[in-house]
Design brief:
Elements lengths: L1 H18 L11 E9 L2 E2 L2 E8 L6 E7 L2 E6 L2 E18 L6 E6 L11 E5 L9 E3 L3
Parallel strand pairs: 1-9
Antiparallel strand pairs: 1-2, 1-5, 3-4, 3-6, 6-7, 6-8
Length: 137
């Protein structure tokens, strides 16, 4: 009887060694990044912010902006930051499908998205809080 237990325990040990005991493989370290985004002094109600590494592999980390605030996880390193947001144009509707649909506009200048001038450096220390005060001019 003891020999059978030893055999079962031995097989269990071999099974654990084969499958590994360390759990899932670890990926790159991620760090919390958060902050506020305003446009001409007002919080951006609904938009998106993207942090993209400036060096290869140029991974991107993105989050929604809700009521001027965002929060995301990103790897450490130098980043370029892009902000996009749209809003309805008051009194302008598209009737092409038979029902009036509000027409929107992208109102964030290209210097904050397509041709961004915004940067940030995510570190493995510190709070990684980045606030962006954008202006139309």
């Amino acid at each position: 009887m003891i020999a059978q237990y030893k055999t079962v325990i031995g097989l269990f040990a071999v099974l654990l060694a084969t499958l590994g005991c360390g759990g899932a493989p670890e990926g790159p370290a991620m760090f919390g990044v958060s902050g506020k985004v305003t446009f001409d002094g007002e919080p951006i109600e609904d938009g998106r912010i993207t942090f993209r590494q400036t060096e290869p592999p140029r991974k991107a980390f993105s989050s929604e902006i809700v009521n001027g605030e965002y929060s995301l996880q990103a790897e450490a390193g130098a980043m370029e930051v892009r902000v996009i947001a749209s809003r309805p144009i008051p009194g302008k509707f598209d009737n092409s499908n038979g029902t009036p649909e509000p027409v929107g506009e992208m109102y964030i200048p290209k210097k904050y998205n397509d041709n961004t001038e915004l940067t940030a450096t995510v570190t493995d220390e510190g709070d990684n809080e980045f606030n962006f005060d954008l202006t139309a001019n």
